Amino acid sequence: MQFQFYSLELDSVQTAFAPDPPLHAPVQAELRPGKWLALRGPSGTGKTTLLRSALGFSEDYTGSIRMNGEPLQRHTAALLRSVSGYLPQRPYLGQGTTAEVCRDLLRTAVEHQRLEELFPRLGLSPGIRDTAAERLSGGELQRLGLALLLARRPQLLVLDEPTSGLDDGSCAQFLSLLDQMQIGGIFSSHDSRLLQLADHTVVLEPVAAPPEATP
């Protein structure tokens, strides 16, 4: 029976690299299917690590993260990967042409057909198939990375500054597609264009460093 995602809960979660103190104030949030949670905050407040923690990729946090009411640690890494799709700020898709990379990353004919349909919807030119993946622009990498994720039909997207390399036209296509797909997830961003998509926004407030002890 296929796992069905219905909730992700962050309960008093703080990014923390032991033995150092937490980077931000506790986060309390709940995410449901089809909804978007945005993370905002200054650089260095742990946004990327918090995104990775929500996927089970990092345990550098305190507090509790639960999926469907169960701690993340009770779910296998394979299950978490099958449910979610992660797009880092600077995707690395591998070496070779774009066509070769896509062939390696997608498993089924259905996924490849979906990818073909997503190319024009994200403004990706058919010509990039013969381009080395490492020679794509930042915006092309972001859009191709999203297309590869959506071709897999994840139940939850986790996106790290996904519009940072996109111009207004590409960003509009990106946001329109997310809306049409009726998918939700978590993203970090300072981009007002993307923040309009959020159903709930959490601002990561830096934790003040404790005063140094005086001799």
Automatic annotation (TrEMBL):
Residues 8-215 form the ABC transporter domain. InterPro entries: AAA+_ATPase, ABC_transporter-like_ATP-bd, ABC_transporter-like_CS, P-loop_NTPase. Gene3D superfamilies: P-loop containing nucleotide triphosphate hydrolases. Keywords: ATP-binding, Nucleotide-binding. The keyword Nucleotide-binding applies. One of its GO terms (molecular function) is ATP binding. It comes from the Bacteria. This is ABC-type multidrug transport system, ATPase component.
